[in-house]
Amino acid sequence: MRHVIALDVGGTGIKAALVGTEAPPSDGTPARPPVLLHEARRPTGRERGPEAVVDTILDFAAELRDLGAQRYGLPAAAAGVAVPGIIDEADGTAVYAANLGWRDVPLRALLSERLGGVPVALGHDVRTGGLAEGRIGAGKGADRFVFLPLGTGIAAAIGIGGRIEAGAHGSAGEIGHIVVRPQGAPCGCGQRGCLETLASASAVGRAWAAACGDPDATAADAAKAVESGDPRAVAVWQEAVDALADGLVTCLTLLDPRTLIIGGGLAEAGDTLFAPLREAVRRRVTFQPLPPIVPAALGDAAGCLGAGLLARDLLSTEVTA
Length: 321
Ligand SMILES: [Zn+2]
Description:
By secondary structure, the protein is of the alpha/beta class. 39% of the residues lie in helices and 21% in strands. It is globular. Zinc ion is lined by residues 177, 187, 189, 191, 194.
């Protein structure tokens, strides 16, 4: 079966997959959605240093190429890789990734060389996940959407007409660093009161750990405590929901999306998050059209599926070029 290699590189783990892709139909109708044929994951091991992480990615991709060749009788036709940080998608370079220690890593060229010259696409992790949510997930059919995963940090993918806006410098969508509490706690970016210091899954976990006295408490624990009616948890949760609603109103005032898709660890709380969040956003809008606020559909497969779509897009360009 024709397939591509997809990699989703995170701060703690690397997910990889062989993604089955049909050749795009010649009559211009959309290709069928990609399918995950084989999935694997391994630790990023960033404590070993930036170069070791690059080696792990290249080795992982080469193993998948061999597996695909063995299983399907032909090697992968292309590869896509999603990485965090600042990406130059045109150049194929991972310009800067604080949590991996990367500066100017020519990842696309390195991967293509290791994979015997197949075309490789490099994408930003959140934008790549957003591409998948927009084409085959919760934003399917929406001409304009925003995908906002709430995880260790917060960033957004801005979907416009089937593609994701990267900005002039590859920095579009950094909604986690919109200031929602001007006198708030310091953020890693140097500013104070950024949205991600209040409403990321990590921030909610930290706030709940401080409130309940268990240093290992997580955002998922906070959600459970909210569901059981613990007033301390309800207070922590409401603070995060209010901050998030303030950030979302800025986002929809600026972008007027058809759909607002929320994903990441915090969205796993389901209605415990979505019910108060929809209400908090509804209370804040005045003239702005209120889009549906929906959970992401692809979970943590979004990055790999998106990387598979990036790889498949390379093939369709080749066909039409
Ligand atoms: Zn910040």
